């Protein structure tokens, strides 16, 4: 059911409810007015009742002859209608109302004998009450006509109001639906009514954020496709060129050429594996098998694995470890891969004769209310420009765009390192100054220290 139909149905129900409420209030108000008159002139009503009760006593506790006593009661002249009812029979009447109308509309006075026994009922109307009764009768006679006219005009006004309201209320909905249709059609340039202060504005802002996120993902997808294509193109062209040259000349490939081609094949294989690994990490499709490990031993293995690279560039590789045993719950190979990528990055961007320092300690982070193991990899290399810092963990991103591929890697190392740390509920912080150096700080949840 459309909103416009719902509004019309709701308005119709509201109109009927208002009319019935007015009718009920009017009906009740007539009885309230009648009873208020009694309260204002109670002494007069009591005097009339006393006269009828005295008549009953004076006639031997009987109503014999009461029907011929019209006008004989002193206070009867103050009333327009009087009816004495005994066992649903009218024994005395002053006025012209039918018994049913008098009983329904008149004020009831109960009569009592000497023994407080009920001897009958008086239904009376004085002048004010009778005028109320006449007005009520007139009102009910013209009410159907008034109701028909009122309902007609009210319905017309309601229809106009509903049409205007529904148009205004459904306008943002139409805009939202139009925007969603544009998104479905692949158009990212969509405008939602985000400046509204109502629920439609909240929905629009949520949709706008979703659209921006989808646009960002689409840009990332296209960028990834472009980067992968670009990275694969160079080694493939080298391999293709060498093989075509060998085929055209009919000469066998030398050992050096074979080694060069093998390097390019290994580069392709490593790149494919890294892209697949990173995709699994980002999609949450990697199953972790953590164990309690001594991070100090992992770092010692890392230093042994990379020592030759530092020696080749005459870089001093220094370690500062605060304790011999610092335990963390991790999957060793993934943490080793993350730290290896960070250390290799530091060695690549540190000039000959520089240094790379590894610091390991426990720190309590007040902002996270927990203790962490901090692993710092510090170098005095070329540094990273401030504008590049937010981008260095992006896939295929290199802060130094002029660096040759053989030394610059695939551009996936830092992204893989970050994702490996994320899946262990840790994070990486980086601080850098151009020409002064860079410090990567890895934080991993620390295991409680067991005191013997």
Automatic annotation (TrEMBL):
Residues 227-448 form the Histidine kinase domain. InterPro entries: HAMP_dom, HATPase_C_sf, HATPase_dom, His_kinase_dom, HisK_dim/P_dom, HisK_dim/P_sf, Sig_transdc_His_kin-like_C. The chain crosses the membrane at residues 7-32, 145-167. GO terms for cellular component: plasma membrane. Its EC number is 2.7.13.3. This is histidine kinase. Pfam families: HAMP, HATPase_c, HisKA. GO terms for molecular function: ATP binding; phosphorelay sensor kinase activity. Coiled coil: none annotated. Keywords: ATP-binding, Cell membrane, Kinase, Membrane, Nucleotide-binding, Phosphoprotein, Transferase, Transmembrane, Transmembrane helix, Two-component regulatory system. It is found in: Cell membrane. It catalyses: ATP + protein L-histidine = ADP + protein N-phospho-L-histidine. Residues 167-219 form the HAMP domain. It is an enzyme of class 2 (transferase). The keyword Acyltransferase does not apply. It is a multi-pass membrane protein. Its main location: membrane. It comes from Brevibacillus formosus. It comes from the Bacteria.
């Amino acid at each position: 059911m459309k909103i416009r139909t719902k509004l019309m149905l709701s308005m119709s129900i509201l109109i009927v409810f208002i009319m019935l409420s007015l009718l009920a209030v009017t009906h009740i108000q007539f009885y309230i007015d009648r009873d208020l008159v009694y309260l204002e002139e109670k002494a007069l009503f009591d005097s009339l009742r006393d006269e009828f009760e005295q008549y009953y006593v004076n006639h031997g506790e009987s109503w014999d002859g009461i029907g011929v006593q019209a006008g004989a009661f002193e206070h009867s002249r103050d009333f327009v209608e009087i009816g004495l009812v005994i066992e649903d029979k009218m024994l005395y009447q002053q006025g012209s109302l039918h018994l049913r109308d008098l009983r329904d509309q008149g004020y009831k006075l109960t009569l009592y004998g000497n023994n407080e026994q009920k001897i009958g009922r008086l239904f009376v109307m004085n002048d004010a009450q009778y005028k109320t009764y006449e007005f009520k009768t007139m009102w009910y006679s013209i009410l159907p006509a008034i109701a028909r006219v009122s309902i007609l005009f009210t319905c017309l006004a309601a229809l106009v109001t509903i049409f205007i309201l529904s148009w205004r209320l459904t306008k943002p909905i139409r805009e939202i639906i139009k925007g969603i249709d544009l998104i479905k059609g692949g158009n990212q340039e969509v405008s939602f009514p985000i400046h509204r202060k109502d629920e439609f504005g909240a929905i629009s802002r949520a949709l706008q954020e979703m659209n921006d996120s989808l646009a960002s993902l689409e840009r990332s997808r296209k960028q990834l496709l472009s980067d992968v294509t670009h990275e694969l193109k160079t080694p493939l062209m080298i391999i293709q060129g060498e093989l075509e040259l060998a085929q055209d000349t009919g000469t066998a490939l030398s050992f050096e050429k074979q080694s060069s081609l093998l390097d390019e094949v290994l580069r392709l294989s490593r790149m494919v594996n890294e892209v697949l690994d990173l995709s699994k990490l980002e999609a949450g499709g990697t199953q972790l098998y953590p164990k309690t490990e001594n991070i100090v031993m992992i770092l010692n293995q890392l230093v042994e694995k990379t020592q030759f690279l530092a020696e080749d560039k005459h870089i001093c590789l220094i370690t500062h470890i605060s304790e011999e045993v610092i335990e963390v719950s991790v999957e060793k190979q993934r943490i080793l891969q993350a730290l290896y990528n960070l250390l290799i990055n530091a060695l690549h961007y540190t000039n000959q004769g520089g240094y790379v320092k590894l610091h390991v300690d426990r720190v309590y982070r007040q902002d996270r209310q927990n203790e962490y193991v901090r692993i710092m990899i510090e170098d005095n290399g070329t540094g990273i420009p401030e504008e590049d810092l937010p981008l260095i963990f992006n896939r295929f991103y290199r802060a130094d765009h002029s660096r040759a591929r053989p030394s610059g890697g695939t551009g996936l190392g830092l992204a893989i390192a970050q994702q490996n740390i994320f899946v262990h509920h840790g994070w990486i912080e980086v601080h850098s100054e151009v020409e002064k150096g860079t410090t990567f700080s890895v934080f991993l949840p620390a295991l409680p220290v067991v005191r013997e």
